[in-house]
Amino acid sequence: MNDEFIRQTNNYATLTWLGNPIWQNIADLWVTQEVISALRPSLIIETGTNRGGSSLFYAHLMDLLGHGSVITMDVKKMHNISHPRVTCLIGDSIAQSMVSRVREAAEKVTGHVLVILDSDHSTGHVCKELEAYHSVVTPGSYVLVQDGITDTLPAAAAWRPGPLPAIEAFLAENPSFAIDQALCHTFPISHHPKGWLKKLV
Ligand SMILES: C[S@@+](CC[C@H](N)C(=O)[O-])C[C@H]1O[C@@H](n2cnc3c(N)ncnc32)[C@H](O)[C@@H]1O
Rounded to two decimals, what is the model's pTM? Predict the structure, then answer.
């Protein structure tokens, strides 16, 4: 079933949100919507803006909830999105200047901070993003490590090792985080196996 969705959508690369390209598995987007609705985050930090559809999706949900903002970052600008809740930063997500800037912004908000990692999915990069951003996640909130499917999907073999080894290494070192199995298994298809990491305390 997953293969058919992937084939017909060119691995979800041809989907749009209100006309804006969004590169997300639609079942995963629904789970994210449920998390945002329940958590009402004050800040979502997204690595990997691409053409901006996902950051707009999060911001539009925040419009409906009347609360929150988004910081999204990418090594290059590939969009012309503009939304009062969205701040777009250009640069490497693990550059010290970027990490400092984002951490400062996170420290200023009260309420939940949710982190979504959707940039370079190689193990090394995801390890560094987890190291850089896990400290801003508030207890009860999450870091969503996207696209662990890279490590299991036959067609993604060229991009391995991907996020799954990074998740395993991170959890071994950080017992205050645990996989939220219920979220990860909401639907029988997902691009983010073991991806929802909950900050417990
Ligand atoms: C899968 S796309 C993001 C998709 C987007 N979140 C969406 O749902 O529409 C990955 C993006 O990560 C960016 N990227 C790759 N390496 C990066 C890095 N080191 N820092 C920040 N962004 C990076 C790429 O330029 C690309 O646009």
Answer: 0.98
